[in-house]
Amino acid sequence: MFSVLKKSLVASLMLSTLAGQVAPAFASGTDDLPDMGTSAGSTLSIGQEMEMGDYYVRQLRGSAPLINDPLLSQYINKLGMRLVSHANSVRTPFHFYLINSDELNAFAFFGGNVVLHSALFRFTDNESQLASVMAHEISHVTQRHLARAMEDQKRNAPLTWVGALGSILLAMANPQAGMAALTGTLAGAQQGIISFTQQNEQEADRIGIQVLQRAGFDPQAMPAFMEKLLDQSRYASRPPEILLTHPLPESRLADARNRANQMPHVVVHSSEDFYMAKARVLGMYNSGQNQLTSDLLDSWSKGNIRQQHAAQYGRAILALEANKYADANKLLQPLLSAQPNDPWYLDLATDIDLGLKKNAEAIARLQKAPDLRNDPVLQLNLANALIQSGQNEQAAQMLNRYTFSNPNDTNGWDLLAQAEAALGHRDQELAARAENLALTGKIDQAITTLSSASSQVKLGSLQQQRYDARIDQLRQLQQRFRTYEKR
User: Any idea where the Peptidase M48 domain is (predicted)?
Assistant: First the structure.
């Protein structure tokens, strides 16, 4: 069994992993720290980091309790990209994911991939605090901390580190699995990197607080959240997971507080989306515990208008989760009447209507939504409602367009497979399921499933050629990924 220190060492290194991103044209300002990212280029190229990121994302989808909720994914990616647009040294695209976990943590890895644990919504008091955690992770990425660690450890082959980092990633994403699987990969980790990773943490704080401030959030939120974490650890038998993977000595808190105090004082109100997301996470993804408490809802009911809306929305969620569809509908109607095009309300109204067997009403409401053409959340809701009402041909047409535009969304492929199965299109059902398998890291199964799809259609047909061409693509991907598989 590894000590907390060694776990902190390599897990923090993993968190520091990070590659740059596609620099937004409107990124502004310069950071007060030198851009060290380019110094790591001789160890790992940006292209290699992105390929490794793709590999690990697929493993994450297949083994971690990701929350594939389109509304929540849309919210955290919108919030994350707001921060990224104010970051420097951005060299790869960014993607943000949410894991259903009561362990308080966040981490980032190759290719601009940032993962948040759902417990963050329970412990952050406002949107600026949540943004401060994300800004910290984004800064790990833009500074390419892991690649820089590899540069300092030239005697270690980079791909030796890859195996260790993959194990750490999956253990952090799914804490219930424990750290036992890390025994082989961590055996060669060197204690001398600890001070380097602590420097990474402070560097990510310093750059992150600048990103936070430039993006229009309260810079005081970063030291405030750190202090909250330290306070919690003082009265707990075991510190929060985030403190094991992000060492937080008092010096880090003092430095963050000092930097925040030097920035202009601002009053920042959390968006309504933040409160809606918090209500949804606590109400729907609560690991069997009622985290959306009456105390919280009562507090919001006495707050500002955004909090009042979230309180009403939260009560409707609790009624829906209890299968009290009529009660949920009654609670939601005032909100929906006032804002009939709000995606949070439209999504919940769809679930309520389907629960009440009012499929036609759900479909009609969604089809009238002005943002339907551009909003993936509404499109998925409509496709699901169409399937539930037996209109599978229309759903399949819609989902074929959706998966073309959103090929990395497992929700789209899953719904398409359902629609094609209902239509009796066995080959197309298998093809959709194969895409889902590939996205969750099961490339072998994806190839086998696509081969079955190919055997279902006429020999030499255009459809068979399309399936076979996709099989070739997956085999090439499989060959590239073999480098990163544990041996």
Answer: 73-259
137 a catalytic residue = yes
Tell me the pTM.
0.84
Catalytic residue among 51, 137, 342, 414: 137
From 31, 127, 205, 429, active-site residue: 205
Is there a binding annotation on residue 140?
A: yes
- Return per-residue pLDDT of the chain as tens, 487 residues: 322 222 333 333 333 332 223 333 333 334 444 343 444 555 678 888 888 889 989 988 988 889 999 999 999 999 999 999 999 988 889 999 999 988 888 888 888 999 999 999 999 999 999 999 999 999 988 887 666 666 655 545 555 555 555 555 555 555 444 333 333 333 344 333 333 366 777 788 899 999 999 999 999 999 999 888 877 766 655 555 554 555 555 777 888 899 999 999 899 999 999 999 999 999 999 766 668 999 999 999 999 999 999 999 999 999 999 999 999 999 999 999 999 999 999 999 999 999 999 999 999 999 999 999 999 999 999 999 999 999 999 999 999 999 999 999 999 999 999 999 999 999 999 999 999 999 999 999 999 999 999 999 999 999 999 999 999 999 999 999 888 775 4
How many Å apart are CA 241 and CA 246, to the nearest integer? 8
Instruction: Say whether 201 counts as a known binding-site residue.
Output: yes
**Cα–Cα distance, 108 to 131 (Å, whole number):** 14
- Report the 10 Å Cβ neighbour count for 425: 19
